[in-house]
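Thread: Newbie trying to understand structure tokens

Hi all, I'm a second-year student working on a class project, and my supervisor (Dr. K.) asked me to get a predicted structure for one chain before our next meeting. I've only ever worked with sequences, so writing a 3D structure as a token string is new to me. If someone could post the tokens and maybe explain what I'm looking at, I'd be very grateful. Here's the chain:
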Amino acid sequence: MEMPDEVIEDVRRRLHRVAGQVQAVERMLDEGRECRDVVTQISAATKALEQAGFRLVAAGLTYCVQDPEAAAADGYPLEEIQRMFMKLA
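---
Reply by user tm_fold:
Sure, no problem. This is what the structure looks like when written as tokens:
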């Protein structure tokens, strides 16, 4: 399944944000920051990563709904998209 350019760019932006958050966690650990602050940053990174995954699944779902035959031929029947969603849920 080919992803639309705007989906790819959105996911890249989200992943870039996650990378920055992970680097911030590493700095916080090096600086001896409070546990609650580190956990808050890890939580934010986790949420951002989940959102990137959901964005991809949403694009796949849109593809399945708009052209179910082509999606199935590409190996993405609706059931596969549902399984992908459940992996993230």
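A couple of things are worth pointing out once you decode it. Helices lie at 5-31, 35-66, 68-73, 78-88. DSSP finds four helices and no strands in the chain. Feel free to ask follow-ups in this thread.
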